Amino acid sequence: MVMSTGAAELMPAVGVRFLVQVDQLDLGMFTSCDGLGCEVVIEQRSEGGNNGYVVQIPSRLKFPNIKLSRPLTKETERVARWISGLAGGVKRRTGQITAMTSDGTVVARWGLVDVIPVRWTGPSVAKGPADILTETIEIAHHGFIDTGA
């Protein structure tokens, strides 16, 4: 069966990897990405005489930290270099996370503003049929930007 381009774009992405870049630094491919999202913080106000409902007022946007994990590879050295460079001071950067299938097809792209590393953990051993060393990096950001793609 041959799929048209339109139908292929509607297919769910399976076997996705996440390419992470901070400014011009390529941190490599990650197998898991958790925390991409946004929340509108709501303030509640009770109005005198209005017993039917509480007024909900949107106030600001809140962005959770993003956690990226992968098995240890040679790319781990890129993260270690980035982290070791923080000794001279933490500078906010622009970042990008690109979801790609195993054949390199880009599924989605998220641009991030004011990226800073929060935590790096690795290597740790995931117990299973084969012990796999994994690493996790957690980043904070101040929101999304257009990636221009």
How is this structure best described in words?
Strand 1 and strand 2 form a beta hairpin. The two termini are 29 Å apart. The mean pLDDT is 87. The protein is mainly beta and 149 residues long. It is elongated. It has a single domain, classed as Roll (Pnp Oxidase, Chain A), CATH 2.30.110. It contains 2 helices and 10 strands. The strands form 2 sheets. Strands 1, 2, 3, 6, 7, 8, 9 and 10 form an 8-stranded antiparallel beta sheet that branches. A two-stranded antiparallel sheet has the order 4-5.
Q: From the helix content, strand content and strand pairing, which structural class follows? A: mainly beta
Total strands: 10
Q: Indicate how many domains the architecture comprises.
A: 1
- Residues in helix, %: 10-25%
- DSSP strand (E) fraction? over 45%
Shape: elongated
CATH topology-level fold name: Pnp Oxidase, Chain A
Ranges where pLDDT stays below 50 over 5 or more residues in a row are none
What is the overall number of helices?
A: 2
Named at the architecture level, the CATH assignment is Roll
Distance between the termini: 29 Å
Order of helical and strand elements: HEEEEEEHEEEE
**Biggest β-sheet description:** 8 strands, antiparallel
Mean pLDDT over the residues: 87
CATH class: Mainly Beta
Spatial extent as radius of gyration? 20 Å
